[in-house]
Design a protein that fits this description.
Layout (H helix, E strand, L loop, with lengths): L2 H9 L5 H4 L7 H10 L5 H20 L2 H6 L13 H4 L15 E5 L7 E5 L1 H18 L8 E5 L14 E4 L4 E5 L8 H11 L3 E4 L1 H13 L8 E5 L5 H11 L2 E6 L8 E3 L6 E2 L4 E7 L11 E8 L10 E8 L6 H8 L10 E2 L4 E2 L5 E2 L12 E10 L2 E8 L5 H14 L5 E6 L14 E3 L3 H7 L9
Parallel strand pairs: 3-5, 3-6, 6-7, 7-8, 17-20, 18-19
Antiparallel strand pairs: 1-2, 4-5, 8-9, 9-10, 11-12, 12-13, 13-14, 15-16, 17-18
Length: 459
Amino acid sequence: MSVTTHFAGFMKRHALGPSLIRRNPFLYGRTRAVVEQAEHMDLAQRRAWSEQHLQRTLRMASRTRYGRSVGGGQDLASWPMLDKERLRGNLSSFTTGNTLFSAPAVTGGTTGIPLRLVRSMRGVVFEQACLDWLIERLGADPVKDRVALLRGDNIKDPTDIKPPHWVSNNGGKSMVFSSNMLVRETIVDYVKALQEYSPTMLCAYPTSLECLCRLINEHKLKLHIPCVLTSSEVLKSEAWRLARDTLGCELIDYYGQAERVAFAHASAPREYRFMPTYSHVELVPYKSDQLGDSAHVYEIVGTTYWNDLMPLVRYRTGDLVRLPDEWGAREIEEVALGLRPFNGVLGREQEILVCPKGVRLTGIDNIPRRVENILRIQVIQESLDEVCILVLPAPGFGERDAAQLLQNARDKVPDSIRLRVETAQWLERTPRGKTPLVIHRQPVQELLRLQGVEPALTR
């Protein structure tokens, strides 16, 4: 365990922790100025800033064992695309020096397979500066205001439905609510606890936020939280409107990942912008020849600017965006540099179904459209020729809704795949508490890995 890890674990339980570590007084002011500076840059200034800091990252990365092995130089094109599999289990090859004072991190929220990372203090502080900037745009104070967090923490035995399903954190400045026990039987307890705690801001996974709001409406309860910040999953436009109507809140959604190679945010549906001083973003055409309905889909590939201990170059996130057919190189560059908005991240490359002949089907998130009385669905591909659509039902869900759901799915899925609909009280989660849209069983997982796609794992 590094010195920073031990210290951070101790300080996390105390109010001074974020100020001394994530808002380090020697680094925070300068990094925050860079975040705000980006808003006033034109295209030429963004290009120049990006090139200067990209060169710095490439110099650091070229001194790592990985950089030497691939012969990476000062030209970004001299570096190959970096897949997650090459990074996994090979941490020392990608670090630039002593990790004693590093901050550790792990991925695995989607795939369930951990990937160990380290972050420099400079990188940790810049990340906090980005989040504080978003929080202030919501109208909240990131230092003084109370924050409720709704995420997949296991507060206690999940079979125990008696409250509390929440715990105080950070010296009382925040309260962590477990979304794992957010069901019809407990919603009154959750709302009462949130009302008593009276947070200025709620930070939540989109699926957890959506569940909270639907249950509030279903039980005709009232809850006002002025500011909501979401991340880690795709926030649909419908859920955005639902949260604003239910909680009377302002909402910002942001996109990022544990590897810290790209960051985007939106304060309105379908209006996301990359932060140009966060990382160097490339939008790489995503094998559209293999995906019949995915022309003009791009994968987000990022190069870090701020993690001096682990400078990742051309890292493939697996996250996809779709851009208009008529956009050319200039428009795509403007998206990557944060000058032009895009609709948002479609989801991960895992959100596909695989046909018996190997064809991959995308757009799975469209299946529940125009279907009433459902909270959420999860599509489980049991085998190459069998798919189960798991439904978290709302009151009133019946045969007509199930039939419409099946018809929507059949419009996309060929007859060679059997379809069925099942209702459930719970959807499957990853070890990090997220709820994937698509789950693949064996042998579908094996086929996906052969095609270079890492399947989402929940068990």
